[in-house]
Amino acid sequence: MGTLYDFTCAACGYTAASGGMDRGIDTVYVTVHCLNCRELMDVLAGRLSHDLPPPPPSLGAPATSPPPRPTVPPKEKLAEVKWRCRTGRFHRLEPWQPPGPCPKCGEVIERGEPVGIWD
C-alpha cells in the first residue's frame, strides 16, 4: 500500500500530493519533476510480477479441505516502465525526492502530512 503526502511551498503556495518512490500490490510509482509542465507528479515506474511456487501434489484430501498454504515465499520481479508525463508524452522528467526544490519557484519543499493511501 502506498501513501500520498502533502507538499506545499511556503514561498509561492504551490501544492502537490505525492508519495515518493512507493509501491502497491503490483505497481511501483516514483515522484518526478516534469521540467516542461513545472509540476511534481507520481508516474508508473514498474510492474511487479509474483512468481508463486507450484501447488503441491494432491494428497487425496477431501474436497472441502482448504488448499495447503505454500511454504516458500513468492519471488518478486520488477518490469521497469519508461516514465511518462501525464500531459506530454515527450516531456522531460527528472526524479524528485523531498526535501527538494519547488518546481515553480525553486525554494525547498518539505514533506507534509499524509493525505491518502492507495493500493
Provide structural commentary.
With 119 residues, this protein is mainly β. The protein has one domain (2-51, 68-118). It has no helices and ten strands.
Give a topology summary.
Elements (H helix, E strand, L loop, with lengths): L1 E7 L6 E4 L3 E2 L3 E8 L4 E13 L23 E6 L12 E3 L4 E2 L6 E2 L1 E8 L1
Antiparallel strand pairs: 1-2, 1-10, 3-4, 4-5, 4-7, 5-6, 8-9
Protein name: Zinc ribbon domain-containing protein
| Total number of helices | 0
Mind telling me the C-alpha Rg? Answer: 20 Å
Strand content: over 45%
- The amount of helix comes to under 10%
- Mean pLDDT rating: 80
Low-confidence stretches: 67-75
Q: Note the gap between the termini.
A: 5 Å
Oligomeric state of shown chains: single chain
- In total, the number of strands is 10
**Which structural class fits the helix and strand makeup?**
mainly beta
Instruction: Quickly count the domains.
Output: 1
| SSE series | EEEEEEEEEE
The largest sheet is: 5 strands, antiparallel
| Shape label | globular
Region (Disordered): 48-78
Biased composition (Pro residues): 52-73
Protein name: Zinc ribbon domain-containing protein
Which descriptors apply to this entry?
119 residues; mainly beta; three-stranded antiparallel β-sheet; 0% helix; Zinc ribbon domain-containing protein
Short characterization:
Residues 52-73 have a biased composition (Pro residues). By secondary structure, the protein is an all-beta fold.
